[in-house]
């Protein structure tokens, strides 16, 4: 049990560091544009700060020994968390090549199909729907340019 909590704490600490870095890097993209419009760095800033705060709370709980209901915690939870973390890292590394939308869609598909164990067709449907929603909200509605990568997909400006 002790080793499980140490592994969980390490994951939460890593997420705190990465989300804090994400929030810090967001300033380089511009939080707002001229006229007070939402800039490309706004979403990474808000999500980075929120993820850092939530991860820090979970880290604190993990360091303190976890909640009582975690006494019989399953090691599969930690493996699932590491798997999602690895998939997120892979998606981030794909962005310069495929663009944000393709990388995001692949991430949603992989999590749905391989982590959540959904059938491939429904997982693909969820990935396409989520990608279309992100495109509609950020590119069409907010006019926030998303990285298009080498493929040029996503409205890079």
TrEMBL record:
Cited Pfam families: TctB (PF07331)
TM spans (from-to): 39-60, 81-114, 120-144
UniProt-listed InterPro entries: DUF1468
Annotated keywords: Membrane, Transmembrane, Transmembrane helix
Keyword set includes Transmembrane: yes
Source domain of life: Bacteria
All residue ranges annotated as the DUF1468 domain in the record: 14-147
Protein name per Swiss-Prot or TrEMBL: DUF1468 domain-containing protein
Organism: Nonomuraea rosea
């Amino acid at each position: 049990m002790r080793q499980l909590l140490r592994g969980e704490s390490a994951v939460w600490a890593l997420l705190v560091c990465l989300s804090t870095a994400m929030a810090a890097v967001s300033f380089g993209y511009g939080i707002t544009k001229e006229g007070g419009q939402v800039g490309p760095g706004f979403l990474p800033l808000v999500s980075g700060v929120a993820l850092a705060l939530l991860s820090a709370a979970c880290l604190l709980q993990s360091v303190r020994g976890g909640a009582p209901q975690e006494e019989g915690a399953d090691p599969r939870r930690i493996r699932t968390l590491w798997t999602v973390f690895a998939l997120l890292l892979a998606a981030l590394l794909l962005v310069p090549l495929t663009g944000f939308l393709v990388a995001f869609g692949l991430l949603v598909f992989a999590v749905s199909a391989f982590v959540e164990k959904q059938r491939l067709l429904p997982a693909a449907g969820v990935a396409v729907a989520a990608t279309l929603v992100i495109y509609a909200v950020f590119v069409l509605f907010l006019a926030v340019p998303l990285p298009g990568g080498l493929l040029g997909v996503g409205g890079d400006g």
